[in-house]
Amino acid sequence: DREHRIIGDAEGFRQTRKAELHAMARFAADQVRKTGRPFTFGVLNSTERRIIHLTLQKEEDLNTESVGAGRDRRLQVSLK
Question: Of 77, 78, 9, 14, which is closest to residue 48 (Cα–Cα)?
Fold first, then answer.
């Protein structure tokens, strides 16, 4: 039933993970700017990829895209 959802959050895991993903996005952005080479994350689920996409969407010099298919889908950050 999609009308009722239960979301479990043990000891603030969800908020902690979101903060980690924001930090990972900033790290990737810094690396791409320093090296000029794309940065590809390891395997992330769709929610985690979305958080990184949204974190970097206002960066005018960077592009984010999901590459690959299925369970091997990865997020790549590159210069525009």
Answer: 14
Q: Nearest 5°: CA angle at 40, between 34 and 41?
A: 115
Q: Tell the residue number behind the tokens 């590459």, with chain if given.
A: 67
- Return the structure tokens found at 39: 């940065």
pLDDT tens digits for range 14-33? 899 999 999 999 999 999 99
Give CB contacts under 8 A, 24+ apart, made by 56-62.
56/25, 56/28, 56/29, 59/29, 61/33, 62/29, 62/32, 62/33
Taking the C-alpha atoms of residue 34 and residue 71, their distance in angstroms, rounded to an integer, is 30
pLDDT at 3: 82
User: Taking each helix axis from N to C terminus, what angle separates 46-56 and 13-35, rounded to the nearest 10 degrees?
Assistant: 50
